[in-house]
Amino acid sequence: MDKNIPYKTYLEESEMPKQWYNVRADMKNKPAPLLNPATLKPMTAEELGVVFCDELVDQELNTTDAYIDIPEEIREFYKMYRPSPLVRAYCLEKALGTPAKIYYKFEGNNTSGSHKLNSAIAQAYYAKKQGLKGVTTETGAGQWGTALSMACAYFGLDCKVYMVKVSYEQKPFRREVMRTYGASVTPSPSDTTNVGRKILAEHPGTTGSLGCAISEAVEVAVGSEGYRYVLGSVLNQVLLHQSVIGLESLAAFEKLGEKPDIIIGCAGGGSNLGGLISPFMGQKLRGEADYRFIAVEPASCPSLTRGKYAYDYCDTGMVCPLAKMYTLGSGFIPSANHAGGLRYHGMSSTLSQLYDDKLMEAVSVEQTKVFEAAQQFARIEGILPAPESSHAIRVAIDEALKCKETGEEKTILFGLTGTGYFDMVAYQKFNDGEMSDYIPTDDDLAKGFAGLPKV
Amino acid sequence: MDKNIPYKTYLEESEMPKQWYNVRADMKNKPAPLLNPATLKPMTAEELGVVFCDELVDQELNTTDAYIDIPEEIREFYKMYRPSPLVRAYCLEKALGTPAKIYYKFEGNNTSGSHKLNSAIAQAYYAKKQGLKGVTTETGAGQWGTALSMACAYFGLDCKVYMVKVSYEQKPFRREVMRTYGASVTPSPSDTTNVGRKILAEHPGTTGSLGCAISEAVEVAVGSEGYRYVLGSVLNQVLLHQSVIGLESLAAFEKLGEKPDIIIGCAGGGSNLGGLISPFMGQKLRGEADYRFIAVEPASCPSLTRGKYAYDYCDTGMVCPLAKMYTLGSGFIPSANHAGGLRYHGMSSTLSQLYDDKLMEAVSVEQTKVFEAAQQFARIEGILPAPESSHAIRVAIDEALKCKETGEEKTILFGLTGTGYFDMVAYQKFNDGEMSDYIPTDDDLAKGFAGLPKV
């Protein structure tokens, strides 16, 4: 091991970020605004305020301030589980026999099991500050719902979670964690909303989708006094909160006197990837440094690598504003054999714009290869990774093996977003040799694209 | 919050312990030796070497060396998940309104989910060094089995785990984590051993016990070329390895300029409690400092508070040496409604002697009260604790509330041994209001005592 570089680097509390970084301020081409689905005009703060908390609306629309203060209450909560460690993967490097230096930023050391808590506590804080009774949301794999339940318990807010039915049934323990934190959890689609009843009537026996759960959560928030809707990914405000990951990483690298060449993150809606790369991207946009950024997505849900860059509905029920993003169409649902998260049909507008501007690369990987990397990583580095995070591990290993061939001593940073402790059904399939891959055909994708709105 | 005391204190890698501390060296009354069940004479190193690795036998019998070097390979592995944080529970203090300062040493931030990895990696290392093919063990709640699987994966050792049948069935995901790390997991009692077949014949339909799983694991180790048996608690060697918890805690307190008044740990076989208190107990034994030590055990398995201090069998099949310990009798099995670990019939000989010498206190708590504390802690401090750890939380909260009454500003340290992510069946019972308590009657205990050997 390098004498001066420990396995784990923690910032001191005094070194933790006091402001989030808003990458949009440094983007020449700003991400396209959300559109009102009725008027096709940009959503106003007033219109957004019906759905979201007021301060979060301000953050959503703010494309000019590079730094936004993190309120002290949130910084105090961050201190309970942050800073997260920047880990040097010495054992993995040795096992691969690579000259590359591999680092990962590990966000899994909290009960939500992922980075989602970074934004959940912020959104709960602003809801509390606004005097609300509670919030509604959707959850797929369950990480976001768990994180929000924890945040709401901390601030004494009611928390209503619509959980994609297939996850609700396959992950009873995720559900139970949320209940332990006092949240109510409803399988979606449900008969508690108009949109849920409509979807159930049209598709009896459906196991649900994220887009549908979003529609239900939004409907309940808008129709309930003192409630707002909160979302764990895709939105600009979420990327803003998640910038704490990248800011800590950057500060830790500076402390070590190191600099990554390649930065890799898994990408579903973009919350982790956007948060991890933001401050580094800012340096690149300002011409201060250069990095290769790689978004890794599942081959079964390839919004960046095979999607269209277009305005689309954010939800199945079409109750949400339209967003311009790389999308597979709001009707797209990954095949049933897809394990874990990263199943949203679209990608964060900010990341979509950066990708369209060729500031970031994207690759897609098949899930059996992802779980091979997950198992290898678990046995060597000791941490059982979340399936989502393992997409980034897969590509980090592949890049390190390329360095082995070329002899290049590149420095690789990837985001280890979380742990897989609630994903053992998927691991069991892999352990039993029963996991399969599925890559949608062009015809499959054409069906999704056919549903894109004419904007 | 105190200006100079962060939420979390991490030692630098250079400050991590390089030696384990062996509390027996400072004990005036040494723990009683293990006895050969046939001759009733103290077990020799040679006899123990049939079951255990040679260097571990040396450690087991060593009552004179206060410090034993931690081999570099183990220290490297420790760096992957240690140092563990010493956490100041500011939010809990505030919620309780207590003048007490509450600290906890959190051992749950690794995939095994508990402190068990501290000894697992040590035992796997010595097995590897001895050129063995593999090791066998038992696991109850599953934390030890998981930890050993991880350690064996790291050193490329085969790992055979006998898992108490009721846990095997109720915790399929624990089993799957072990499989992901390459271990084979067999529900106990099984038909793969003589002792298993005998127990199955005598008690058809039994859901197993730790004592029975130990017997099976020992039988397989002794009967297989290149295998030894390893155990995750009770033994002196385990307390030695676990002293890393207490040594880090002591160093962190010294760094902060603080000193605990009360040190609290849950106690099943004694691995966590013994490890946490050892260095502090050493100071007390040497007259350098004074502390109150409190062992917390389940009311349903009260070996210290209601057991007898006597020689007893360590396992149901009576294939192991006899140990002098506080015990409920090797036939004692906690009632079926007992959730989680802390279900072993006896207590570490070292801790038993310290308790008998009145150097340590013990209390028992009922499990509904334990889960109330667990839920409260989860919501306030953000970490979902293991049921075992929650015994210590319960008493830490009770002591902090006493301080609130008296106005005393005591400093409380407790061991948060792990997380409850694989214990959601128990949490679900609690959330649904279906958890009950059970305190064995004197008659129940008399049955266990009747099986004590005449030594």
From TrEMBL, chains A, B:
- Name the InterPro entries for this protein: Trp_synth_b-like, Trp_synth_beta/beta-like, TrpB-like_PALP, TrpB-like_PALP_sf
The segment(s) forming the Tryptophan synthase beta chain-like PALP domain are 81-418
MF terms in GO: L-serine hydro-lyase (adding indole, L-tryptophan-forming) activity; pyridoxal phosphate binding; tryptophan synthase activity
Query: Per UniProt, which keywords does this protein have?
Result: Amino-acid biosynthesis, Aromatic amino acid biosynthesis, Lyase, Pyridoxal phosphate, Tryptophan biosynthesis
Top-level division of the source organism's lineage: Bacteria
EC numbers listed for it are 4.2.1.20
Q: Is Amino-acid biosynthesis included in the keywords of this UniProt record? A: yes
Pathway it works in: Amino-acid biosynthesis; L-tryptophan biosynthesis; L-tryptophan from chorismate: step 5/5
**What are the annotated GO cellular component locations?**
cytoplasm
- Keyword Transmembrane in the entry? The reply is no
Q: What is its cofactor? A: pyridoxal 5'-phosphate
Q: Which reaction does it catalyse?
A: (1S,2R)-1-C-(indol-3-yl)glycerol 3-phosphate + L-serine = D-glyceraldehyde 3-phosphate + L-tryptophan + H2O
Could you give the subunit structure recorded for this chain?
Answer: Tetramer of two alpha and two beta chains.
Q: Which family does it belong to?
A: Belongs to the TrpB family.
What is its biological role? The beta subunit is responsible for the synthesis of L-tryptophan from indole and L-serine.
The protein here is known as tryptophan synthase
Q: From which organism does this entry originate?
A: Ruminococcus albus
